[in-house]
């Protein structure tokens, strides 16, 4: 008699344990991957699963296979059928119409652990607004469906590009899941013909001029006000080679007057973990001292003032609106400091685009050269000091 159970695998090098559905029959075993991994913190000392959400998803899969086992048991009654054969029968999907994309996406979002998962959730909520059915058979996602979703998002170019790109990724994750066996279940990929629209970016328009930058620099505001905080963070970002607000918030290392951090936006997607070292110019030493944390766990005290990096970023941009109104710059935003740093580095100082890219902690454009050249942050820091000396009149 075949049996179905849950099995936890051995801990891998990342400290995670993969979960499988174990099929036992005729003195043989076969494991069916669930696609779910558990971290050590999600297990009790005795090895039981304590993450309730993941446990529910795992148990749901176990029950699914158990129900299928009951349905097919008559096919091998009174026979010694090996576990591999039974597992193949359990995992075979009769038709593509049986795959509910909504169900797959919900499970994937809960268990994938990828960065930016909130964007996937928002995209799926929007997709459900477009397609009103309670289930979405994957066979319905074709070229016409995608064009309709694109039209549904008309007037929102960023959403068109992002959501359809995320939908493409999820669809191909479903292909990976259901086409893992001997026979492909999802035989067509509509994204071969359909092209995800690219967001048209108006290059350079977000940078402010050197004169406008000096207006921001000269703004004082009320002491301890949100506007003053916003102004200070804008100047910190510009002088620290366009550092993002999340990295100001989370930065934990400052040694030899140099910030050392991994850029949060891209550290999970790069082999070098998006590591960078940014030397602090004397022009902003008073600001660094002003916001320096007494807690050794962080460089700045922003984490003490705001409960999350999102709240911190929101406060900065609200404050910058007030600063902009005061100095005559409409819709001033924090990210403009990064754009301004890049623009003045290139146009005012004539630094190479490669050096500007490296200062912004972007992936290099010279893939082969990057293999051979050892990283030397002194080059971009020397360039940055020259820029700040020029802009703020510190030249000797």
Question: Secondary-structure blueprint of this entry?
Answer:
Elements: E1 3-11, E2 16-25, E3 28-39, H1 52-72, H2 83-91, H3 101-111, H4 117-130, H5 143-152, H6 157-178, H7 210-218, H8 226-239, H9 245-250, E4 253-255, E5 258-262, E6 275-279, H10 285-290, H11 302-305, H12 309-327, H13 336-347, H14 353-359, H15 367-372, H16 378-391
Antiparallel strand pairs: 1-2, 2-3, 4-5, 5-6
Helix pairs in contact: 1-2, 3-4, 4-6, 8-12, 8-13, 14-16
Notes on the structure:
Helix 8 packs across helix 12 (309-327). This protein has 396 residues and is mainly alpha-helical. The chain has three domains: 3-92, no CATH class; 97-192; 210-391, hpI Integrase, Chain A, CATH 1.10.443. Strands 1-2-3 form a three-stranded antiparallel sheet, with helices on one face. The chain is built from 16 helices and six strands.
The overall pLDDT, averaged over residues, is 87
Put simply, the count of helices is 16
Proportion of residues in β-strands = 5-15%
Number of domains: 3
Q: Could you say which structural class the secondary elements and strand pairing correspond to? A: mainly alpha
Total number of beta strands = 6
Order of strands side by side in the largest beta sheet?
1-2-3
Concise synopsis of the structure shown:
This protein has 16 helices and six strands.
């Amino acid at each position: 008699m075949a049996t179905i159970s849950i099995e936890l695998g051995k801990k891998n090098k990342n400290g995670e344990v993969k979960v499988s559905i174990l099929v036992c029959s005729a003195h043989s075993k076969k494991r069916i991957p669930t696609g779910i991994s558990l971290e050590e913190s999600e297990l009790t000392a005795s090895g039981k699963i304590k993450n309730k959400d993941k446990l529910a998803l795992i148990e749901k899969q176990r029950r699914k296979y158990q129900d299928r086992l009951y349905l097919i048991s008559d096919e091998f009654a009174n026979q010694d059928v090996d576990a591999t054969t039974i597992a193949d029968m359990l995992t075979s999907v009769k038709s593509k119409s049986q795959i509910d994309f909504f169900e797959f996406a919900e499970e994937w979002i809960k268990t994938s652990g990828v960065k930016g998962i909130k964007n996937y959730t928002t995209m799926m909520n929007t997709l459900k607004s477009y397609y009103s059915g309670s289930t979405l058979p994957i066979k319905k996602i074709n070229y016409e469906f995608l064009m309709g979703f694109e039209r549904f998002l008309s007037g929102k170019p960023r959403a068109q590009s992002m959501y359809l790109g995320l939908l493409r990724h999820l669809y191909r994750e479903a292909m990976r899941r259901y086409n893992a066996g001997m026979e492909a279940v999802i035989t067509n990929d509509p994204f071969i013909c359909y092209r995800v629209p690219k967001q048209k970016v108006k290059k350079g328009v977000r940078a402010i001029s050197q004169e406008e930058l000096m207006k921001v620099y000269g703004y004082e505001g009320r002491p301890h006000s949100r506007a003053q905080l916003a102004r200070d963070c804008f100047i910190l970002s510009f002088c620290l080679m366009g550092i993002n607000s999340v990295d100001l918030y989370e930065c934990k290392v400052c040694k030899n007057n140099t910030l050392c951090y991994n850029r949060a936006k891209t550290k999970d997607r790069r082999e070098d973990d998006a590591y960078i070292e940014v030397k602090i110019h004397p022009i902003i030493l008073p600001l660094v001292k002003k916001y320096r944390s007494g807690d050794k766990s962080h460089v700045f005290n922003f984490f003490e003032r705001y409960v999350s990096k999102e709240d911190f970023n929101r406060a900065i941009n609200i404050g910058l609106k007030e600063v902009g109104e005061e100095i005559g710059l409409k819709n001033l935003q924090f990210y403009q400091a990064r754009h301004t740093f890049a623009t003045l580095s290139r146009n005012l100082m004539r630094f190479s685009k490669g050096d500007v890219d490296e200062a912004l902690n972007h992936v290099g454009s010279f893939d082969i050269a990057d293999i051979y050249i050892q990283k030397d942050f002194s080059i971009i820091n020397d360039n940055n000091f020259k820029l700040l000396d020029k802009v703020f009149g510190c030249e000797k």
